[in-house]
Write a structure and sequence with these properties.
225 residues; 2 domains; 13 helices; 68% helix
């Protein structure tokens, strides 16, 4: 990304945040995440609540966010998603950060805190449905659900292309849970969207694969609840 990061004020904020992160270190939380298979190169075990508190002390800054992400700690990457400026985010950055994600926590924090607020959210969510990496596809699904939940101004029709993409993604059992959650967000958006999800689940059931049938059955239960 073509941006100058050697900024004294940004560097000072960055160093202050590193100190705050270490003051919230929680070894038990790190161990718990490792038991659930969530791995990082560096993980201080700081809770999301505490990270939001840290982020709330600073003004949004694209430069600081880039510095935080480049540090490659769990906490700095999550803070980057909280502090970046959506209008300054580029498609190149979105591709790079998403491809760098290595677990569901970072993928979901990117989607929930930052990606859905960028001008490229819908384009990237659709594009990533066909990504080669698992976490890219995972992010695409989560981002689509986040957009359905948060972007009330856009028409329901903007989500139509996702249904075709999700038919293919539904064959992957490792994506079933995030598909289920995002499709419920679709359904909760409007009665029209609920019917579309219902119709989609019928098509999915007719697909015949064990994974597809299971997801269709779970969706039917969720829609009836």
């Amino acid at each position: 990304m073509d941006i100058w990061l050697d900024n004294k004020e940004a560097e000072q904020r960055f160093r202050e945040m590193l100190k705050e992160i270490t003051s919230f270190r929680n070894g038990e939380a790190v161990s718990a995440m490792q038991r659930y298979g969530i791995q990082y190169k560096v993980n201080m075990g700081v809770s999301l609540t505490d990270l939001k508190t840290i982020a709330g002390r600073y003004a949004p800054s694209h430069v600081v966010a880039l510095k935080l992400w480049n540090r490659n700690w769990r906490e700095t990457m999550i803070l980057a998603t909280m502090l970046d400026e959506p209008g300054q985010v580029t498609e190149e950055q979105m591709d790079f950060w998403t491809k760098s994600s290595e677990n569901s926590e970072i993928a979901e924090q990117l989607s929930a805190n930052l990606w859905w607020r960028t001008p490229f959210a819908y384009v990237k969510a659709l594009e990533w449905c066909r990504g080669k990496k698992h976490w890219v596809r995972y992010t695409s699904i989560h981002l689509a659900g986040r957009l359905a939940m948060m972007d009330k101004a856009s028409p329901d029709e903007i989500f139509d292309p996702f249904f075709d993409e999700f038919i293919t993604l539904a064959k992957d059992p490792s994506l079933s849970n995030v598909l289920y959650r995002s499709l419920l967000h679709f359904a909760n958006r409007s009665l029209n969207m609920k019917q579309m999800v219902t119709d989609w689940s019928i098509i999915l059931r007719e697909g015949g694969t064990e994974t597809a049938v299971f997801l269709a059955e779970e969706l039917e239960k969720g829609l009836a609840g």
